[in-house]
Design brief:
41% helix, alpha+beta, single chain
Length: 56
């Protein structure tokens, strides 16, 4: 996730084949990994404390 934020200009997060969020432009500027995890938790209502969510 860190590399995606450093290299890309748009971030799309998927979970179980569905788009959780798609973020680009000014909305994406300055985001850190913790921010992405917070967005995921907010959108899905799931806590990211399980490696399977990150690696699966």
């Amino acid at each position: 996730m860190k590399q995606a934020l450093e290299v890309g200009s748009r971030t799309v997060m998927l979970h179980q084949g569905q788009v959780v969020f798609d973020i680009a432009g000014k909305e994406r500027e300055g985001l850190e990994v913790k921010d992405l995890l917070g967005l995921f938790e907010k959108q899905r209502g799931l806590s990211v404390d399980d490696d399977s969510l990150l690696l699966g």
